Amino acid sequence: MTGVPERRTIDDMAAQPAAVAQIVIRELSALADLEEVYALFDRIWKPDRSNPPVTVEHLRALTHAGNYVAGAYDGDELVGACVGFFAAPPGRSMHSHVAGVSAATRGRHVGFALKSHQRDWALEHGLAEITWTFDPLVRRNAYFNLAKLQARPSDYLVDFYGDMDDAINGGQGSDRLLVRWRLEDPAVVAACARGGGAGAVVAPGVVAALTESPSGRPVAAPRSVWARAGRVLVGTPSDIEALRGTDPETARLWRSAVRDVLGELIGGGARVTGFTRSGSYVVERTDA
Length: 288
Known about the structure:
By secondary structure, the protein is of the alpha+beta class. It has two domains: 23-194, Gcn5-related N-acetyltransferase (GNAT) (Aminopeptidase), CATH 3.40.630.30; 207-285, no CATH class. 35% of the residues lie in helices and 26% in strands. A seven-stranded mixed sheet has the order 1-2-3-4-5-7-6, sandwiched between helices. Strands 9-8-10-12-11 form a five-stranded mixed sheet. Helix 1 (10-21) packs antiparallel against helix 4 and helix 8 packs across helix 9 (248-267). The longest helix is centred in the last third of the chain and has 20 residues, at 248-267. The radius of gyration is 19 Å and the shape is globular.
């Protein structure tokens, strides 16, 4: 039998990851739905009231202009949401501004299902990549972005949002990694097809530039050891979010150490090629 295959919709393409997470994902535009998104983000970040990650008015404007807002539902409860808008270059890129998932659903792969839906939506609209930023100190986010999704950092942005006085960032600066998710890169396609990629394997000869001490503090190797190495590991704290509450001074030391090492490497043209299960960025110098 021959013929043209039936065209798959975005909901069809997102069905498998959503089924694994036991949720339903749909695009949102109604005002009541956008108010739910605002309330969810407020519960996740507990921001200063004068500076929420997004307002209902902002969401309304974005959806009216044809941008992306989607929600993940467990029954009637909104448990995750993702917001993105078209970016430069026009017709090729989307910037994913904010995504959040309720802590109650952690471990159910809701975040992966949301990003898969966003990727399908972007491809349906002729886009080639999605960019977003994340805090390089948050180990679980780094693993999710670089290992599971196979996105790759392109820039280290110092204090990108200024001081953020919320429950997660704790007023300790807002350095961010800008990542690019090239939607049809073979590694991305494979990761999405199998429900997520894997952590990076450490090759022989790699140099550990930054590690975590038994007491939880950052330990940086001398710059002369790692600055010209071909492959470098840059470690992260086990749980920076908890550390900001229990030991803010050590948390500040981590911010400074990762900025000094990872920021310098990326600024000098090195590229991050992955993230290990044990919590380290794998960095390769392009000129080595």
